[in-house]
Amino acid sequence: MTAAEARGTELGRYLKARRAQVRPEDVGLPAGAGLRRTPGLRREELAALAGVSVDYYIRLERGRETNPSPAVVDALGRTLRLRGDGYERLHELAELASGRPSELPASPDHTVRDSVLRMLESVRPLPAYVVSRHNRVLAANPPGRRLMPGLWDWPEEQRNLTRYVFLHPVGRTLYEPWEETVALSVAHLRAVGGADPDDPELTALVGELMLKSPQFARLWERYDVCERGGGQKSFRHPEAGPMTLTYEVMRLARTGGQRMVVYQASPGTPDETAMLSLESADTRPASLPSDPSVPATEPQPADGLSPAHACAG
Fold it and tell me: CB of 79 within 8 A of CB of 49?
């Protein structure tokens, strides 16, 4: 396989995964009699609807065609009913296949600037933390650490939010509904990893989770894409109790994809009371040095649950 074909493979995987999720009736085609061997649209159906030859589309899906025109990419996106992040990801993967350079550096930076650490402290008592491009937790203020119990029992290089929600016993009970949370987490990982799908940190994380979590494997193969900039999460926290918090995500410039996440609650509500209970007398700075005195928690494999749709639109 040539280098160009290798780059085109990720585009082909995306096209195949999204094609499998479009029903014939969604695009005005009869479902037909009998059982369809292919889930979703057939290749020839998608090609006809997008206005390209079947042979050309097959080359795209197999990674042998690596330079589709913007018009072809637009037509495929419309036929696949892609919107928002999903539509943007199709264009990004087409650019990747063509060999145009990514805007992201080859290796993400895991060093958190002092100014960012001061920001984490300044937002207390709001829980806040900084994650890398691939969701590794790089720093947190005390309420941010207490928001995710058990994560800090793992070595620094293992403290990844996607790994946490799938493999840590507390992570599998902390969020509700869990199925929606993990679907969004996988879709976000797909989004942020799309510009560099061969990144060693990403491939190692995905390989581990594919082996240990059947649920992750099913969601990863769906290729849902959702790059979230904020939203709302509900928790069943073992110390603070149930609470629903809103959060904002801020990209940090010149960091290779670091993001700062800050949670808050409506003033005067039980949710705020629960959130404020996460604040403590702990005055350590917002960094995460290793603590060899803390015993490591062995991650547990996740059980398979029915997948949830990660991004609608």
Answer: yes
Greater model confidence, 265 or 80? 265
The pTM score is: 0.68
Q: How many CA atoms lie within 13 A of 24 on its CB side?
A: 14
Output the CA–CA distances (angstroms, integers) from residue 155 to 88, 138, 152, 158, 257, in the order listed.
35, 12, 7, 5, 22
Cα dihedral 123, 137, 14, 2 sign: positive
Task: Report how far residue 26's alpha carbon sits from residue 156's, in angstroms, rounded to the nearest whole number.
Answer: 46
Burial class of residue 55, CB neighbours in 10 A (0-12, 13-18, 19+)? exposed
* 3-state SS track over 200-230: HHHHHHHHHHHHHCHHHHHHHHHCCCCCCCE
Lowest mean pLDDT among 59-68, 143-152, 172-181: 59-68
